[in-house]
Specification:
Blueprint lengths: L4 E5 L4 H17 L4 E6 L7 H10 L7 E4 L8 H6 L1 H10 L2 H11 L3 E6 L7 H6 L4 E5 L3 H17 L12 E2 L8 E2 L5 H4 L4 H11 L5 E4 L7 H9 L5 E4 L12 H11 L6 E5 L8 H14 L2 E5 L18 H4 L4 H4 L4 E4 L4 H6 L3 E6 L3 H9 L4 E3 L6 H11 L3 E3 L14 H12 L5 H15 L5 H15 L4
Parallel strand pairs: 1-2, 1-4, 2-3, 4-5, 5-8, 8-9, 10-11, 10-13, 11-12, 13-14, 14-15
Antiparallel strand pairs: 6-7
Helix pairs in contact: 7-9, 12-18, 16-19
Length: 471
């Protein structure tokens, strides 16, 4: 029997590549009978992806083959401003022929295509080459349920979601235990012109694959996973998370941050970090600074500028904080607070001094925080972060609500009073939330070891792949 080879095609953002690469690595660690190639689709606006992939290729013990595809005539950047999700979809669809030719040329025993959720157009390639396709979903099981629900919603109501709808204020989406208010739905599905149709097309194709592979674990999202698995219209569900890249960072800034944390008492520091594309205007930074000072909390604060929509890459920090923040703030908080630009998030969350995390609620960040037992206060900014925050607060009871429906560029100023209240709740050692988070911390680690739910589910996926290759 030839060595069966899977081909992965992640979405073009680093967050997507991270979880795809970690899943591929764990598959190869579990079973040497498999081979895996990851095809990397680039964009004109994510130059950092090339460097990240090169670091993966050169990492010790790497057994994954990475092929960076040539950039095929990308869509106009005007489409990116109009709807980033549609831009990425068109970009990937434009690579269909290139993906097919690359597989035919480089993959000897092609046994399955694993596509990210923006890559459903590539299911056609798997069909043409007569191999099964699988969806790798790097976000929550509940959000996957929302994607599957989009065609049903349109069939029922004949329209997209509407945040201004006076007749319907919330929606009964099967994978959420509570009705979901329109205010926390992802911005893209509230876009009646392009976004909703784009995502509905993806959702409608999810059921064409042979399996749904989700970066979650049953103990965390039992309601959503059970709902997906019990629907006979859905493909087989594999829960394989948490998939985390826990490699330690390096560099001068890393050493400076770790040295600061080393001087702080255990569980005393609140970490504020909003992802590689999350930032705020100066007026909002002032409110955060006032809240931090009034709360008396020790803090590590990663500050980035608010990103321009047409620049979807990593954003930069401010160079003139003295002019932006309240006069004397940096001096008054010296010793108990530190401000940085980039922050080594995994290493910070792993540090014993960190006791709380004000987060944008990207799914990778949520999984990292639970893995390290650090409770979150929710401050979503973009993508599906609002509905992630909703699930964490309302369905799972695992986060402090700071904001749920906040969106980048929405023009809303979150007051220092709101922020201070959330900080005090988050860092309150008597908050019962802390016990729940620590319990989930233990469950997350048990899920991925021998006998755990995700370990067994990954084993089931491997056996399904190998059984299709018995000759």
């Amino acid at each position: 029997m030839k060595q069966p080879e899977l081909v992965f095609v992640p979405g073009p953002g680093i967050g997507h590549i991270v979880s795809n690469a970690e899943f591929a690595k764990q598959l190869l660690d579990r079973d040497p009978r498999l081979a895996i190639t990851i095809l990397v689709i680039r964009t004109p606006i994510t130059p950092e992806v090339d460097a990240y992939v090169k670091s993966l290729v050169s990492s010790p013990g790497n057994r994954i083959r990475y092929i960076i595809l040539p950039l095929e005539d990308p869509p106009s950047l005007e489409l990116l401003v109009e709807c980033p999700e549609n831009y990425v979809t068109l970009l990937i669809d434009g690579h269909k022929q290139c993906v097919k030719e690359t597989i035919v040329k480089h993959v000897v025993s092609f046994s399955g295509l694993v596509v990210d959720f923006f890559c459903t157009g590539l299911i056609d390639v798997a069909n043409e080459l007569n191999v099964p396709s699988y969806l790798f979903f790097p976000s929550t099981a509940a959000f996957l349920g929302l994607m599957l629900y989009l065609p049903t919603h349109y069939e029922k109501l004949g329209k997209s979601f509407d945040i201004l709808d006076t007749e319907i204020s919330d929606y009964d989406i099967p994978t959420y235990a509570h009705h979901v208010p329109a205010s926390v739905l992802p911005t893209v599905v509230l876009d009646k012109e392009i976004g909703f149709e784009c995502m509905m097309k993806h959702g409608s194709r999810f059921r064409e694959v042979k399996g749904l592979i989700i970066n979650t674990f049953v103990e965390l999202e039992s309601y959503a996973v059970d709902t997906l698995a019990s629907d006979k219209k859905n493909p087989k569900v594999y829960t394989v998370g948490p998939l985390l890249d826990l490699k330690k960072a390096r560099g001068v800034e890393h050493e400076r941050i770790m040295s600061f944390l080393d001087t702080q008492p255990d569980s005393s520091v609140v970490f504020l970090c909003f992802g590689s594309m999350g930032g705020f205007e100066p007026t909002q930074l002032v409110e955060i600074a006032v809240a931090l000072e009034r709360s008396g909390q020790r803090f590590l604060w990663s500050i980035r500028q608010e990103r321009a929509k047409e620049k979807m890459g990593v954003i930069n920090g401010f160079s003139n904080l003295d002019e932006i923040l309240p006069q004397g703030f940096l001096e008054r908080t010296k010793g108990r607070g530190m401000i940085c630009g980039w922050a080594p998030q995994v290493d910070v969350l792993a540090h014993q001094a960190v006791g709380g995390f004000v987060s944008h609620c990207g799914w990778n960040s949520i999984l990292e925080s639970l893995w390290h037992g650090v409770p979150i206060a929710t401050w979503p900014i973009y993508a599906e972060q609002q509905i992630n925050a909703f699930e964490m607060v309302k369905d799972l009871g695992l986060a402090v609500e700071l904001k749920l429906g906040y969106r980048s560029g929405c023009g809303v100023l979150v007051s220092a009073d709101e922020i201070e209240k959330a900080l005090r709740s988050l860092m309150d050692k008597g908050n019962p939330l802390r016990k729940k988070v620590m319990e989930m911390n233990e469950k997350s680690r048990k899920a991925v070891v021998n006998g755990g739910s995700s370990y067994d589910s990954m084993g089931s996926f491997i056996e399904d792949i190998l059984s299709k290759n018995v000759h």
